[in-house]
């Protein structure tokens, strides 16, 4: 399993609805409300070889109320 981090910018007044919808997918390991340009931060574990872009587009970014997403991949540094 490989972790990815996804930040989401939500339409005004939609953050709680988006968070509830994401929680119901049961694919998210951790979900946080954040300050700054993005409203939510998710940590998701995906299978090795799974298409990250397709996962984010189909499973996350398609949720109503999401305006923008930013995906961060991590690499083993040490």
Automatic annotation (TrEMBL):
GO terms for molecular function: DNA binding. The keyword DNA-binding applies. Residues 6-76 form the Transcription regulator AsnC/Lrp ligand binding domain. The keyword Lyase does not apply. Keywords: DNA-binding. It comes from the Bacteria. This is DNA-binding Lrp family transcriptional regulator. It comes from Rhizobium metallidurans.
């Amino acid at each position: 399993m490989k972790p990815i981090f996804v930040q989401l910018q939500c339409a005004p007044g939609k953050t709680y609805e988006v968070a509830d919808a994401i929680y119901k997918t049961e694919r998210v390991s951790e979900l946080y409300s954040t300050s700054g340009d993005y409203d939510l931060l998710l940590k998701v574990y995906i299978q090795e070889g799974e298409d990250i872009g397709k996962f984010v587009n189909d499973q996350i970014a398609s949720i109503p109320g999401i305006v923008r997403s930013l995906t961060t991949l991590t690499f083993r540094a040490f």
